[in-house]
Amino acid sequence: MLQLIENESIRETINGKRIITKKPELLAPAGSLEKLKVAVHYGADAVFIGGQEFGLRSNADNFTIEEMREGVEFAKKYGAVIYVTTNIFAHNENMAGLEEYLRAIADVGVKGIIVADPLIIETCKRVAPELEIHLSTQQSLSNWKAVKYWKSEGLDRVVLAREVGAEEIRLIKEKVDIEIETFVHGAMCIAYSGRCVLSNHMTARDSNRGGCCQSCRWDYDLYENVNGEEKPLFNEGDAPFAMSPKDLKLIESIPHMIELGIDSLKVEGRMKSIHYVATVISVYRKVIDSYCADPENFKIKREWLEELDRCANRATASAFFEGEPSYKQQMFGFHAKKPEWDFAGFVFDYDEETQMVTLQQRNYFKTGDTVEFFGPEIDTFTMTVGQMWNEENEPIEVANHPLQIVKFKVEKPLHRYNMMRRKNK
Amino acid sequence: MKKPELLVTPKSIPHIKELIEAGADAFVIGEQKFGLRLAGEFSIDEVKEATQIIHEAGKKVYVSCNALFHNDRIDALDEYLKQLQQIGPDAILFGDPAVLMSVREFGITIPLHWNPETTATNWFQVNYWGERGAKRAVLARELSLDEILEIKENSKYEIEVQVHGMTCMFQSKRKLLGNYFLYRGEVMEIENRKENKNMFLHDKERNNKYPIYEDLNGTHIFSPNDICLIDELTEFFEAGIDSLKIDGILQTEEYITTVTSLYRQAIDAYFDEGEDTYDEIKDELFEKIKAIQPPLRPLDTGFIYKETVY
């Protein structure tokens, strides 16, 4: 483990107590307006979204300008802000429409863009100077001198390469006065971002314009070419060569990241469900707030770690933050992980008088199932589902239609955006 | 019309001499600590010796510093740049802006070539880095012919295009080969394999073979085919592309030398004799390359005529 060095510059004495007042931003992903609202409601300080052009997840549900406007308005009520990813490496043909697009983003109140291509950086400075410019991890920024370069170009923030470790971040922070954003959670590239064109070769999809088909997660056979002879470097029954990384999870390194003075902690995953976003964001929110409120007595609670595991569909690892990742941070052989709990319902309404919840079905459940409710306003609790009714108030035993409206009795109060999970058998 | 430069990647000092004979105009050399995926490894003393030989022959030499640098290599980079300033090669290749910062800081007067590989994708970038000191841009190999020509038309700086050899399609900082052997408990496999560059990944679904190796900069995976544009050069010639590169990574000296002499013939035929002469001999030149092509390396035209979607 790394040694935690207390950083005085992020602390203040309030009511005789040394607490951390420079809290890092908790930055969440959102692939849709619904996900954005959930992210903000569950505690994100900022949300990054993709527009319909110039972003790197061409198959994510991306935002129209009108949806961005609504997202910005919603976030504003919570004091949260929105960033838009425009991080492709453009080809000549992608240049058209960029000015109008950046102007439109700025006009709906987006705070900044996340960008890799100097074309987009310079165009933004010219046509939408009120937007903050954050350098994307696509530039694989790995040293302080390159950070200094981007600072000299007027950028507001840099997202470091995922290959940069804690001590490297410390030096970068020391040498350059610029906001630093790093990833804390989610799936990630095994290659230096921007330096992989496997998809281009294997499927004619441009990985640096949003077409990545994750060829790095496929299996390959390793051979050696000995004077023209192809000799397999594996035995019958061996796991094939694989380079699939475990997902990043730095929940236990959060105190360290806060002490380093990192400005923004980023959760990856615009394609993930609202359940994923809610779970991950709420746990990181608790860890950041608890540590900053009382750093001396802070301890990670087992229940937080367990909570985070409830939405994990892959094994997790710390990647480069605490040193060079070994083979144990990759997945070989069979590696799907079935979560113990499924997201089953999304709370729309709760009537305190009748104690009836109205929720939207997100996965099969039935009377008699063990479910748990969670959300920022409540303590997580478990119960057994009793008699249910559908939208027409007809009694039902099974909720098996996607997105159907279901009502049943829950004794503890619930709130809009609370979520219900069902335990897998 | 101006003859484009024929740029090659030598593997050793004696190889440089052969390549000069074969008709190369310029050379990329360097060491893996600073440059990515070089055909040969040249220490600073060898860079000095090579520069002397190349300059005596009236040719040009470029030293590669296009690695993605981490903090721990910045001091060494600064030292290296100062040494290069003494030696006086004709250009320094870079991708990481740290090199640009150091060049400014130490008053290095050697011209810069911008070569970040996969991310050099439009003409605006060429002019952007040009305005910041890069007199040439080395384009991504994932561009189509039309894109390359449009970049040349709209940029104010020199353009270099790879016309032959394999291309890198993946770089990870992780030791992916070592990790695979460690996962299987085969530590000896790693010990015995320090300089081994004969491995490849077999993609059964596409029946492709991707060369793979590890070095100081991590793990590198290469394209399943070698680009070969010897019979497709007319449009590059007409557009005035400034430099045509033969990348000899993972090839033998003999192969690189022969390929160089064939491209020399192609360029000279077009510019000295005319388009008709080039058209007459280009198929034959292609056949000659095909004849010496290693068995696991099919030829193709890269992304020149291949469209990518996203």
UniProtKB/TrEMBL annotation, chain A:
One example of a Gene Ontology biological process annotation: proteolysis
Record-linked Pfam families: Peptidase_U32, Peptidase_U32_C
Enzyme class: hydrolase
Example GO molecular function: peptidase activity
Keywords: Hydrolase, Protease
Origin: domain of life: Bacteria
Domain Peptidase family U32 C-terminal: from-to ranges: 340-421
InterPro entries, per database record: Peptidase_U32 (IPR001539), Peptidase_U32_C (IPR032525), RNA/ubiquinone_mod_enzymes (IPR051454)
EC number(s) stated in the UniProt entry for this protein: 3.4.-.-
Family, similarity comment: Belongs to the peptidase U32 family.
Protein name (Swiss-Prot/TrEMBL): Putative protease
Taxon lineage: Bacteria, Bacillati, Bacillota, Bacilli, Bacillales
From TrEMBL, chain B:
GO molecular function per UniProt: peptidase activity
One Pfam match: Peptidase_U32
GO biological process: one example: proteolysis
EC numbers for this chain: 3.4.-.-
Keyword Hydrolase: yes
Coiled coil start-end: none
Key words of the record: Hydrolase, Protease
Descriptive protein name: Putative protease
Phylogenetic classification of the source organism: Bacteria, Bacillati, Bacillota, Bacilli, Bacillales
